[in-house]
Amino acid sequence: MKRLVRCVAAGLAVIPLVVFAVTQSTSTANAEDNSVGLTPAMGWSSWSFIRDDPTEAGIEAQAKAMKDSGLASVGYQYVNIDDFWYECPGSQGPNVDQYGRWVIDPTKFPSSGSLNGIQVVASYVHSLGLKFGLYVTPGISAQAVAENTPIEGTSYTADEIAEPSAPENNYNCGGMVGIDYSKPGAQAFINSWADELASWGVDYVKLDGVGSFDIPDVEAWSNALRQTGRPIHLELSNSLSIADASTWQQYANGWRTGGDIEDYGGEPSGSSYPLTDWANVESRFSQVAQWQPYGEPGAFNDYDSIEVGNGGNDGLTYAERQTQLSLWSLASSPLILGTDLTSLSRADLGLLLDRSVIAVDQDGIDASQLVNTAAVQVFAKTEKNGDVVAGLFNTSGAPEVISTTASALGLGSSPGYLLNNLWTHQSTESTSAISADVPSHGVALLRIIPVRNPAAAPPAAALNLTGLSALSGRQPVIATESFTNNGPLPALGVRLGLQVPSGWSRTATTPGSFAAVGSGQTVQATFTVTARGPTP
């Protein structure tokens, strides 16, 4: 029951203080039907870290790291190449083959024997027991139209299906134009492209730059991938319209609900770091709330890449990394990592390997938003077995005690509730009052289980510290620490204490030991605290 409290004193650096209390316990309806995506996808994508320079060596190194790190053993399986794998010489559009399809950039992905460069990487990924993904954008290259390339297996040509006056999004070189799907040969062109990708060993296709204006493209790609006979996941990107959510459900396994999560403005020239920032993560709370009704097995809301893995280079504090993983998991979003898997921090890897949190994501149930204030977000979902998983999020800049109730979380009446903290792996028992001490930008991710006979775990408790905001120079202040027993039984042997930095003084001014604190009861201890001067 330790809690880190950070305070800013006038003329002093930000200093950590530790408040502690010691207690003794008493004893698929509309979803895309392509046989994939029944649970949220897990894996890695090249965009966040590698960006516009994917290579065979770089992608294979990430795949090997996914396997060797243990990530594959807990469900991370897709290794996805994002943009910039194909030849894109300029605004005339991507280079094309004899049938109008994109051409692999051989300088990044050289052929080997009978295998082209993408097949080489896909074969390596598959040899590790993993799956391989690739990136495309809608439409047809203007180069194919200019060359009037034939459509494989038909008598039709590119200029017969193209709409050159309707440009399509392509973030590499541009030059993609629309397709008129009412024209003969239009679906056959997409089929031929999908067949090619399937022959290369592609298991996942990201269709980027699509919107409501591209619904015909989405439907065409959905049909084309199914007709290949190879199970291929279809993911849509980005900022899809919620007004067309039922359409995305029908034709895709996942869809991006917003823009990129990367922190493009905060990165030094030539670096992908920091990968993201708190503002980009925080913006997803509203998206999760709005899109909650539309995720289901086979078709999931996608809140973009998980930027956890590279420590400080993630652009997030440790608490913020827990928040991102918690929110995505409560929302049953795909867990597609954007970090450098060849340089994983041990602490971050521990977060990514946490099976209890992954299970929350993989249950395929979207959590509902229950509280939405400037400082607090609460999301919860009920599992098939009746457990409730709740996230108590502190979006403020200081530690907070966040409280809710069992009934607000959708739990029925019970003598007590077992609270399993999925990040600390500690269990406590509570009455209907559910609360937790949550650090700034952090989360308490709880699995809550009704219990008939309380006493299996220590009582849940809330700690709060006040008074230190007035700390200034060498002037003493009174700090008050409060302990509230939220458990169904008395907390025995409670002892309140306060640790301060070296050079500071702290004197208890009231007793801090309590033989028993009853259920729902709050006790307090006060301390005189003096800061001796600035600390480095």
Strand segment count = 27
Number of helices: 13
Radius of gyration: 27 Å
Spatial separation of the terminal alpha carbons: 28 Å
Biggest β-sheet: strands ordered side by side in the sheet: 12-11-10-9-5-4-3-13
What structural class should be given to the helix and strand makeup?
alpha/beta
Task: Extract low-pLDDT stretches.
Answer: 1-17, 24-29
Average per-residue pLDDT, rounded, comes to 92
Query: How much of the polypeptide forms β-strand, as a percent range?
Result: 25-35%
**What is the global morphology?**
elongated
Q: Residue share in helices?
A: 10-25%
Largest sheet: 8 strands, parallel
Short account of what is shown:
Helix content is 21%, strand content 28%. The protein is α/β, with parallel strands linked by helices and 536 residues long.
